[in-house]
């Protein structure tokens, strides 16, 4: 009984969750709120505009997953080196990772600006949607470099337990975005009525505001993000050899997952503009709820990675299992809240009754899958990567979505012609298989693979050798 009580009610654990998780969750909630505000404001322009912005957003979503891949892979080094306070290696890893994401942002900017119609037609053949999607994307791409700097820089700050600055910067960014949406979308304060182009312009300006605040404050405080420019050109070969074997599996994981998600969205987009609009509404609402679990998984990554970097394997293993228990329980509660609020939430959008009903059913189905999905997210993004085992995450995450969700959704939607809700429900198979594999691997302790040079050991309570 004492062991169970100690496992469930450890004060140090919950103090870390609150100190790290809540500010990160608040930051992501603010970012998702910006997405919700964009969707609501653009939704006033009609279903075509909403679908266009949603489909154009898939391009930046794909780019963000590369950003997230490098950020998550780099955070293995950031958090574990933070555990032993090896600041030079933290900065060296940051410089190498940043050069990668900066190049990626330039590539996505160039392709999105030069070939916007090609990008939008991947998701739809509706000429009206394509026209508005092109108008949005040609402006929105100029936010990509700012978003690259902000995403990767904030990953470093969070991993080293500096969580307030990103939160404050995001608050100011969301306020800026909301105000400029009101000005440019609808033509207020003497500005021209720009529609979807106004939403894109507001995104560009607010993204640079956020990035500017983070960089200016960081260089004034001289924190770890304030890296002298010369250091970006003095990266050692030893850093390269150490960095890519750990970081690249995460990048491959996220890029493969992104391509699979794009395939799923291609199927959804071909099942009707109304259905895709319902998916856009569901995703916007889900992203608000998901922000809490992003904060929780970030806290998991920092706490578990820091313990393992310091050689405290028992502590890291126990905290990982605590997060594994906490995440599905909270997901069950949050899913119930979303289901109970599904009608007022969907009524925020100016859409047809049919689209609203479809969105409400998507929320119900998603709430049923949510506990498994959040457990899987906590394991793959939080625990296994923090422990240094990025290859297992790659196999488990990318493997399951490509072998299960993509073929099942494609068959259900394009071959069997099942109802749209049934098509979306096929993704539950992937989550169930991943849940089963993840539970076994979490308890095995084999994911503990330090990058700091310390020898791994089997933690107490693990079912297998490290």
Q: List low-pLDDT spans.
A: none
Average residue-wise pLDDT: 86
Class computed from helices, strands and strand pairing: mainly alpha
Taking the alpha carbons of the first and last residues, their distance comes to 28 Å
Order of helices and strands: HHHHHHHHHHHHHHHHH
Number of helices: 17
Number of separate strands: 0
Please summarize the sheet with the most strands. none
Rg calculated over all Cα atoms: 22 Å
Helix content class: over 70%
Proportion of residues in extended strands: under 5%
As for the number of domains, it is: 1
Morphology: globular
List descriptors.
466 residues; 17 helices
What does this structure look like?
The structure is a single chain. With about 475 residues, the chain is mainly α. It has one domain. Helix content is about 80%, strand content about 0%. It contains 17 helices and no strands. The protein has helices spanning about 1-10, 10-45, 45-85, 85-115, 115-120, 125-140, 145-160, 165-185, 195-220, 235-270, 275-310, 315-340, 340-345, 355-385, 390-415, 420-425, 425-445.
């Amino acid at each position: 009984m004492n062991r169970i009580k100690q496992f469930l009610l450890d004060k140090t654990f919950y103090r870390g969750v609150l100190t790290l998780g809540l500010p990160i969750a608040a930051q992501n909630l603010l970012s998702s709120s910006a997405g919700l505000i964009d969707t609501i404001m653009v939704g006033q322009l009609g279903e075509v505009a909403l679908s266009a912005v949603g489909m154009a957003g898939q391009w930046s979503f794909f780019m963000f997953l590369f950003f997230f891949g490098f950020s998550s892979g780099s955070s293995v080094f950031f958090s574990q080196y933070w555990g032993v306070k090896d600041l030079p290696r933290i900065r060296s890893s940051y410089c190498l990772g940043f050069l990668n994401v900066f190049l990626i942002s330039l590539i996505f900017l160039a392709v999105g600006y030069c070939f916007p119609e090609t990008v939008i037609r991947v998701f739809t053949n509706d000429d009206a949607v394509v026209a508005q999607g092109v108008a949005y994307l040609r402006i929105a791409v100029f936010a990509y470099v700012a978003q690259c700097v902000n995403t990767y820089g904030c990953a470093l700050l969070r991993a080293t337990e500096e969580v307030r600055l990103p939160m404050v910067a995001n608050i100011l960014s969301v306020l800026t975005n909301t105000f400029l949406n009101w000005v440019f979308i609808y033509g207020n304060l003497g500005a021209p009525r720009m529609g979807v182009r106004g939403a894109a312009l507001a995104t560009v300006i607010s993204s640079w505001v956020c990035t500017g605040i983070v960089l200016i404050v960081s260089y004034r405080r001289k924190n770890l993000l304030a890296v002298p420019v010369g250091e970006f050109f003095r990266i050692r070969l030893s850093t390269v050899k150490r960095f890519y074997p750990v970081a690249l599996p995460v990048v491959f994981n996220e890029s493969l997952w992104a391509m699979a998600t794009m395939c799923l969205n291609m199927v959804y987009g071909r099942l009707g503009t109304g259905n895709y609009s319902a998916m856009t509404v569901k995703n916007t609402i889900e992203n608000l709820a998901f922000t809490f679990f992003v904060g929780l998984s970030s806290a998991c990554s920092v706490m578990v990675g820091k313990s393992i970097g310091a050689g405290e394997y028992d502590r890291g293993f126990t905290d990982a299992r605590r997060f594994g228990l906490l995440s599905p329980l909270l997901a069950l509660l949050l899913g119930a809240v979303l289901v109970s609020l599904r009608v007022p939430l969907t009524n925020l959008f100016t859409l047809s009754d049919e689209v609203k009903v479809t969105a409400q059913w998507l929320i119900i189905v998603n709430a049923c899958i949510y506990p498994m999905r959040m457990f899987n997210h906590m394991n793959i993004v939080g625990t296994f990567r923090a422990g240094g085992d990025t290859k297992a995450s790659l196999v488990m995450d990318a493997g399951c979505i490509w072998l299960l969700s993509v073929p099942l959704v494609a068959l259900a939607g394009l071959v069997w012609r099942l109802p749209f809700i049934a098509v979306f429900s096929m993704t539950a198979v992937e989550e169930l298989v991943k849940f089963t594999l993840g539970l076994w691997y979490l308890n095995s302790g084999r994911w503990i693979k330090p990058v700091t040079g310390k020898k791994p050991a089997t933690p107490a309570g693990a079912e297998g050798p490290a």
